[in-house]
């Protein structure tokens, strides 16, 4: 396949989806969709872990998807993991096997990033007018977004999904009014913190996306209702289910075999949503997370990366010194370019991440200069960073944490999809850039020449400059000591005009 082809895999709690598209005259044309019911979240609530059976189902599905991907370039593929892979204590094991199988990392995204991508998927594939409420009920969580055109105004992800609610409220296989009431009450409890704001914002149109809402939409059509979903139709489905008493005996026109175990929970969550938010009716949208992922890929290729806008917005919010951030960014990228090949650092992945780390390394100054590296790491780890997946956000926080002062290996946290050695090498480059710009002035640094070989860095500087910049040389000498304590070497080579 040529570079015009794009693909996205959505590894949800209930189902895995693959969508393939091609770019035609600046727009995306979907050419294929695959879906497999995996139920990755099955048993998660009881153990907090992915079961061996669920992992086996997930990997078998990814093998099928891998056959369909063909030779789509890595830059044109995005694989996202959602609620279950956010919370499962052994998710790293599954993610490692998935990466080995597909030859591509899986991005575990936050609930808010999931909501943002869902909204983009709906907004780009559905004709809408006015303010829009988008709801997506997944296997482990439900995302709610209010937006206008392509701009979300409110995003939230609530811990209620059709798989987790099925296990908790309908796990005994019975369908009773008492169980529906309990599920609805819990869903309303989950919605309580956002109800006031969402009602105040309001909307002109409500759209539901993904499998649960699609299944309800089809059930109502089969029952002669619709095409909109409304409260009366939802109450009808509830009464029909209660009348049939058992999940395994459930037979409704339009109900597929794979949706039978989780449909009652989906209807209960929808009833809670309609009641809590005073929704009158809901239309179904084919667009969802995977389509949002595809459009995020096209944005990056068109150099309109939301991560750049996020970094810029955060810098403004925390009143970062733009001149100093630009100095550190330019220097760390210059150093990176000189050693990336020798150190085996993937340019496509690490160069932009180091640039954003440099732009944001001083966000902690808004709290205090003392221990700024710890304050910066905390803010970057705990802020909402649209466009960044969890691993990328962890990278920014890690770089900020080790930007200066002594290095404590015990504070280092591994990051999925990244080799520890690569992370340490990025840290060393950022530390050098920060140390070199201690004077916070333009025009101070000479041309920098850096060479790398295994754990050794050699930084060549003009001897005359070294004599005239004792404070900066003191910083670099201190950095030599920090490196030596960890078994690394930083050699400072002073060159005369003749190059000796």
From TrEMBL:
Keywords: Cell membrane, Hydrolase, Membrane. Pfam families: Ppx-GppA, Ppx-GppA_III. It is a peripheral membrane protein. It catalyses: [phosphate](n) + H2O = [phosphate](n-1) + phosphate + H(+). Its EC number is 3.6.1.11. Residues 306-480 form the Ppx/GppA phosphatase C-terminal domain. InterPro entries: ATPase_NBD, Exopolyphosphatase, GppA/Ppx_hydrolase, Ppx_GppA_C, Ppx_GppA_N, PyroPPase_GppA_Ppx. Gene3D superfamilies: 3.30.420.40, Exopolyphosphatase. Domain 2 (3.30.420.150), Hypothetical protein af1432 (1.10.3210.10). Its cofactor is Mg(2+). Residues 19-299 form the Ppx/GppA phosphatase N-terminal domain. The keyword Membrane applies. It is found in: Cell membrane. The keyword GTP-binding does not apply. Belongs to the GppA/Ppx family. Homodimer. This is Exopolyphosphatase. It comes from Pseudaeromonas paramecii.
